[in-house]
Design brief:
Rossmann fold, TATA-Binding Protein, 10 helices, 5-stranded antiparallel beta sheet, alpha+beta, 10-stranded mixed beta sheet, single chain, globular
């Protein structure tokens, strides 16, 4: 099945996808429904991989299941590095829709999208606002070139730039909206500088989606959307890679350091602890290993080579082995304890303030309005 011999099938699949996004509340406005109905996702993903229950399934244009898979509400992996780590994808449509709705664009707004990826999201923005109001930047020149070709094929010609998205694109500033479709540890200062007062940033910070409004002093403040979300991490260069769990397995099992017994305030796999840990420790590799039948959570902070192994010894007790200049568990535990003691609040109850000097403050709503200064 190809693009040319089954346009009606693609139209029908797009309609089903748009209807699903409307029925689940991800799309709430007619302009965005029209965009998802009109933009052909399949033209941006002629080949992709889907991860399902730990297994990778590959699809290519011409495969019988390719077209149907392209319109499923799932992320499509479209590029991998030499180690097999995914470095680009077409985001799950329901998440894209929620972020686009949260962006709250108005006719005439100019948007900077950080993370061009396949170009599909830039096409949705171009359909809604007009291509001349959309600037999209990606660190990978090959991705930019491919996205440009596929956008033209679909009838859209926004401005595409190959460069470091963390630096924004000052040549077209100021922008009314900034949408980051890559993960960032902190909101970069250039984004604040290139946005108009009253403008909005919607970005994946840690494993949450922050929706922030810019003030006149170039501080930003807002809240998180419900639910976890993790995009491909922003890269300073096309070849930049983070430390992978595979490279850390042997060292983390062999390292010796200080040992003590600890109490775990809540399941570390629960969405709340994952969300808070990702905000407090955005640069910390966090994964689970199984050794001799025992599961252990491993933490590693590359900048200082600080590490921790947490091995459960009971329902709420664990053995902590750690080393390096930072005690990662001591930094993390108070935030998790507070989450547990305050009734496990959802992500949407947390807010984020970014000061003009770049300081990030996390807060929880409620009578005490508790605040935490996040480390750089």
């Amino acid at each position: 099945m190809t693009i040319t011999d089954a346009p009606s099938a693609a139209d029908e699949l797009r309609r089903h996808m748009a209807d699903h996004l409307v029925s689940t509340g991800c799309i709430r406005s007619k302009p965005w429904r029209a965009a998802f109905l009109s933009v052909p996702r399949h033209e941006f993903v002629p080949h992709f991989t889907v991860r399902s229950q730990g297994v990778l399934h590959e699809y290519s244009q011409g495969d019988p299941a390719w077209l149907t898979a392209a319109y499923q509400d799932i992320s499509l992996l479209t590029q991998f590095d030499q180690d097999g780590t995914a470095t680009s994808s077409s985001t799950q449509p329901s998440l894209m829709a929620r972020m686009l709705e949260a962006l709250d664009v108005r006719d005439g707004d100019t948007v900077l999208e950080v993370g061009a990826g396949t170009g599909y999201n830039a096409a949705l923005l171009s359909h809604r606002l007009g291509a001349d109001h959309v600037v999209t930047i990606d660190v990978d020149p090959k991705l930019v070139a491919t996205a440009r070709d596929r956008l033209r094929q679909a009838g859209y010609e926004p401005t595409l730039v190959a460069g470091d998205g963390m630096a924004g694109h000052p040549e077209r500033a100021p922008y009314d909206r900034l949408l980051a479709t890559c993960g960032v540890p902190r909101i970069p200062a250039p984004w604040l500088e290139q946005l108009r007062p009253g403008g909005m940033i919607v970005a994946n910070v840690g494993c949450g989606i922050a929706c922030l409004t810019l003030a006149a002093d170039h501080s930003a403040d807002g809240r998180f959307l419900p639910g976890l979300a993790t995009f491909m991490a922003a890269r300073p260069t096309p070849d930049a890679m983070g430390t992978t769990a595979q490279r850390l397995v042997k060292p983390l099992l062999a390292w010796t350091g200080q040992t003590r017994e600890i109490t775990i305030p809540a399941s570390l796999d629960a969405t709340g602890p994952q969300f808070l840990a990702s905000l407090l420790h955005p640069q910390v590799d966090d994964f689970v290993l199984t050794n001799d039948g025992q599961q252990m959570r491993c933490l590693f902070e590359p900048r200082t080579s600080s590490w921790a192994r947490i091995t459960m010894t009971g329902a709420r007790t664990a053995r902590l082995d750690h080393g390096g200049p930072r005690d990662l568990w001591t930094e993390r535990e108070p935030l998790l304890t507070h989450w547990q003691e305050t009734g496990r609040p959802g992500h949407e109850r947390y807010g984020l303030t970014v000061a003009p000097d770049g300081a990030h403050t996390l807060r929880l709503d409620g009578p005490k309005n508790t605040r935490w200064q996040l480390p750089d």
